[in-house]
């Protein structure tokens, strides 16, 4: 994720610039580096928050998958029970029809 980051906070703090007659102002360089350090600190905070959020979402995803499996099993068991009731009802209807055929229609 952060493979392209070249410097750590300490690398930036420890960086020395040579002072030449017509070079950059050390105060301006330090001011700029301070802003880079703030940015990098914010990036680290964001990354830590994202890691924490990612962990929470992975746990929530796992919990929801488990809940889906449980509900599918309940649904399957319910369907099996309903199918067996339908099967029993069908058997009773067939028996009744056979009894009417064998013993007459008055039963």
What does the model show?
The chain is mostly helical and 107 residues long. It has one domain (25-103). The chain has helices at residues 9-14, 26-103. The longest helix is centred in the middle third of the chain and has 78 residues, at 26-103. The chain is rod-shaped and about 120 Å long.
Class from helix and strand fractions: mainly alpha
The beta-strand count equals 0
Number of helices: 2
The domain count comes to: 1
Topology order in helix (H) and strand (E) letters: HH
Strand content: under 5%
Radius of gyration: 37 Å
- Please give the share of residues in helix: over 70%
- What profile does the largest beta sheet have? none
Low-confidence stretches: none
For the residues shown, what is the average pLDDT? 82
Spatial separation of the terminal alpha carbons: 80 Å
Shape: rod-shaped
